[in-house]
Each structure stands twice: as structure tokens, then as C-alpha cells.
User: Fold this.
Amino acid sequence: MSFWAVTFLEYWKRKMATLAHHWDCMDFQEEEERPRPEFAAMAPSIEYNPVTGVKEPYFPERARLSRMLTGSMVIIIMLCVVMIFLVSVIMYRGIVSVMMYRTGSFVLRNIANISSSMVNLALILLMGQVYTALALQLTKWEMHRTQTQYEDAFTFKVFVFQFVNFYSSPFYVAFFKGRFVGYPGHYGTLLGMRNEECGPGGCLIELAEQLFIIMVGKQLISNVQEFVIPYVKAWQQKRALNKVRGTQNSQEPRRWEEDYQLVECEGLFEEYLEIVLQFGFITIFVAAFPLAPLFALLNNWAEVRLDAHKFVCEYRRPVAERAQNIGVWFNILEALSHLSVIVNAFLIAFTSDFLPRLLYQYKFDNDLNGYVNFTLAYAPPSYTSHPMCRYKAFRDNNGNYTLIYWELLAVRLGFIIAFEHVVFIVLRAIDWMVPDVPESLGLKVKRERYLAKQALADNQEALLVSHRGTLTHTHCKPPLAPPPPLSCCIIDLPKKQCKVICLL
Assistant:
């Protein structure tokens, strides 16, 4: 999946270059953008633009940085709120687990994990809506000059929050749950409650369950929203227009009037965010949930048709805007693809039983006979008088770590370093082998530049010939001002008109 992610991004670079050339946006730079209307209306002063030399609205950079710093503090506070909700879900799961355990039913015991994942999904969706509205107001307050700067700042804020919002619970299950349990007689606690332990099969199964509920649940809810919400908005808008119109116009509405009754397009931000979050699910946690790419494929197959119907039949035609690429979204995708390599290395090393089994096969038995007994430790004699009280850990009878634990830790760290370096080397090789611009497109761009230079040279030559012919029949006066670096003269033309001809 890591190789696929990088290969996908490399070929997406080629696709972006092809689209940018097709729409004549390859040389589109941020300096060409005019200030946003909101920025122009709220800017406190007007100054010369050092690039264009034209007066335009201006907002001091120091004041903008101060506002961005204040906004960052608000973001950190909201991330702390997400952590509080995560701890609440953990405590809820612990309380329900105790209640279900007393029933003695294995099926009821799993209700704690499933119900906590559903509660977590509901909190995720709720906080996502709240924070998106907050990020929008913060970004407006920061007074970004161009639309590109505004969208990049808004996108980064929302993604940072949604990343913590969606991935904090899977990260907790993958890397923290069951790590601070302690041992019999010295159990770790959180707010007076004993820390959670992984099930007998380890945390990988629980992580897969949680990823399934969060990822597939979000996809189903998003698809239902995309199908239902446009209909509801269209119905409300038609109802409001009918109230305003009343019985004034009883004739059949014209095509443009029907188009005006459609819902106004709100942009592609939500579509980008949904796909990028899905990209994170199928790359970061693929070692724990290998079926994630399949569910993503099925979701996207339905998503394409829903979006086609929504944009063609339910929304007004969007206003086109020039863009050279997808902006900060591509940087986010690259960061997720690199993060996935590190996270999957830690998942394989610390969460799965792959390396403990490998070490046992190498040191003791290739057929894994006695492996379960190898992973269990005896409870300290001071804790219980029962000689067969066992728990999963690499500790001695006094609760201290054994030599096997440190050997296994060294193997895990060595595996992470080796895995990470090998994968990153292959990724760099893929990056080197796949050019960012297709060869055919590169030749086409070079040909266009050559023809443009040739046309400019021919045009300049024709002008020079024409101007030299004019100079032979015209009396040139001395220049009115000291001549610039170019050779200039003033020519008397009929009807006492003057013209400056610069000879290159």
C-alpha cells in the first residue's frame, strides 16, 4: 500500500501537469491573483503592490501573524476538547465492559467495543461540523489577501482537526491500549479506573473493528447526506421563491429561472476532505484492516454516481476559477503517504504478533509448539496463592521484565529501522523513475515556447524594418529628456502628432 500510495501520487503529478497545460494554467502564479472581495472591503489601508506597481488594499503582515497565532491557540484548545472526548469514550467503554463481563456472555462483552465505536463516530461527526464552522470564521478573521491563501489556510486548519478527530481513537487502540496495564498487584489506573487491556487475541482485532465502524459508518452517513441534503435544500429554496413570487407569474418558467431555483454550489472542499480522510484510512492502518481499500473502492463507485447527479441535477453550475494544481491538498496526501510507512512499521512491530512469533521460531521451535505458554507470565506470589495465575507479559515472578522482553524490544526497533529505510529507498526510486511531466507534454511545452520566441523575434524584426523605413523620411529631433538605456527619438508625424520609437 505504501508503494501504491507513492506511485499514485507520482502519476497524479503527471495528470495535474496535463490538466494545467490543457487549461493554460501552467504559468499561473499567486502574484497574478487579485485580492479577495472580502479582503478588499475590510482592509484598513491602500498601498502599492511591489509586484504589479498598482495600488490595492493592504493589511499589515505583523497583524496577520498575530491573528494566526491567536487562531492557533484556539485550534489547540479544540484539539484538547477532542482528547477529553476520547478519554470519555475510554471511560464509557470501561464501565460498559465491567457491566457486560458480569453477565458471563461472550457476545455481550463485545457490545462494549462496538457501542463505544459508534459513540465515538457520533462525537466525531458532531465535532467535525462544529470545528468546520469555527475554522471558517478564524480564517476570515486572519485576512488572507488572495483566494489561494485563504483556501490553503482554511484547508490546513480543518484537516489538522479532522486528522486528530478521526484518527485519535485508532491511534489509541493501536499504540496505547494495553501498554500501561501494569501487572497483578500493581495495576495502572486512569482517574481511579484500572487501565484497559487488550483482548486475548490482542488489540489488532479491536483496531480492525473500530476502523470498520468509523470508516464504513462515515462513508454511509456521507452518502446518505449527499443524497438527501440537496433535495431538502432544493425543496426549501423552491418554497421560499414561490412565497416571494406568489401568483404574479403563472406562465411556465423559463430555463434560466429553473436553473436559478437550484441549490447554490458550495464548492469542492467537502469532497476533497472526504477523499483525503479515506486515503489516510486505507494507507495508515492497512496492516490492521486490509479490507479498507475494498470498502473504499465500493464507496467511490457509488460516490461518483451520487456526485454526478448532485452537480448536474441539483446544484447550479459552479463558477470556474483558475488554479495550477490542487494546492495544499497534494502536500497533505504526500505527508499521509510518508506517515503511513512509519505507522505500519510500528503496527507490525508492536501491535501484531508477527515479531514475537518470528523470535520464538528462531530461538525455540520452528513449529510454534508452546508459543502461548512463552507469551504468558506467572503472577507474583504476594498477589495470589494460586500457582497457575497467568497473564500476558514477558515478566518474571516478581513483575520485572525478563531478558526475552529486551531481546524482543531490540528486534522490534531493528525491524522498524530496516522496514522504514527499505520502503523509503524504494519510494525514492519510484519518484526518480516516474517523471513529473509526461514526455509528450514536455516536448509540446518546449515546442510552444520555441514557436512563441520565434514569433516574437519575427515580429520585432518586422517592426525594426518598418521603423527604419519611417526614419529615412522623417526629421528626428533631439530627445526631450536624457535618453534611457534604449535608443529613442521623437518623430514628427502628420497633423503634428508625436510618436516615440524605441530601437532595440
Notes: Residues 479-504 have pLDDT under 50 and may be disordered. The longest strand covers residues 487-493. The longest helix spans residues 203-245. The chain is about 65% helix and 10% strand.
